[in-house]
Write a structure and sequence with these properties.
233 residues, 8 helices, globular, Spore Coat Polysaccharide Biosynthesis Protein SpsA, Chain A, alpha/beta
Length: 233
């Protein structure tokens, strides 16, 4: 398969995971032709790790771009910065925290290459929520998923999943504005308003908690809901 994917990696204080993550992405060279890491003003060693890794880059078939944002603005700002540099037919957002596994790229691409969908979202919970998932996370994810389906006549299984794969041209036409985690809701709303064919694909999920560096806050759930309603109205 010709490499179709530009991988957008928003990254903030992920010095402990970013190198491993990029290596896992690069291992999917059958599908990946471009990796764009947007360092969102990290205050740890992320900048230096990325710069050293860039100097030692040894994958001739994959273009690696490192962007350093001057200050921390949020996941959405990093995604938007990376999107500006994307050149391949499709973009896929990949968080830097190792919760989602690049080995699922093949599965995520299948509805696209078979012409059964225009946009693909990952689904972390094909068998339901695991008992280890916090109740707050279950409630928040259920609310944004049900609301997305109700407001935009969609059939999503896991709206908040970080994996969102869509044509690069469409992603740029959406003119995304969000700076924070609500970028997921903005993308969902704007894709929904366009009546794009959206499907979900089961993906592997290895969750981490706040003690391990997870950054989403309870207030982000309210902002996500507000975003979904705002773009519907």
């Amino acid at each position: 398969m010709t490499a179709l994917l530009s991988i957008l990696i928003p990254c903030y204080n992920e010095g402990g995971t970013i190198r491993t993550l990029v290596e896992r992405v690069a291992a999917q060279q059958s599908y990946v032709g471009q990796i764009i890491v947007a360092n969102d003003g990290s205050s740890d060693q992320t900048r230096f790790i990325l710069d050293d890794y860039k100097k030692a880059w040894t994958h001739p078939s994959i273009e690696l771009t490192i962007l350093h944002l001057d200050q921390n603005r949020g996941k959405g700002a990093a995604v938007r910065a990376a999107l500006e540099k994307a050149t391949l037919p499709y973009i896929l957002i990949q968080d830097a925290d190792l919760e989602l596994n690049p080995s699922d790229y093949h599965a995520l691409l299948q509805p696209i290459v078979s012409h059964n969908a225009d946009v693909v979202f990952g689904n972390r919970f094909p068998e339901g929520y695991p008992s280890t998932l916090r109740w707050a996370s279950r409630i928040a994810n259920t609310i944004v998923t049900v609301l997305s389906n109700s407001l935009y006549d969609m059939k999503l299984d896991d709206q908040a999943c970080g994996y969102k794969l869509l044509p690069t041209s469409l992603a740029k036409e959406l003119k995304l504005k969000s700076d924070g985690f609500e970028i997921c809701s903005e993308m969902t709303a704007k894709v929904g308003r366009r009546r794009s064919r959206v499907t979900s694909v089961a993906v592997h999920y290895d969750p981490r908690d706040m003690n391990q560096g997870k950054k989403i806050r309870w207030i982000d759930g309210f902002i996500a809901v507000y975003t979904l309603i705002k773009y519907r109205l």
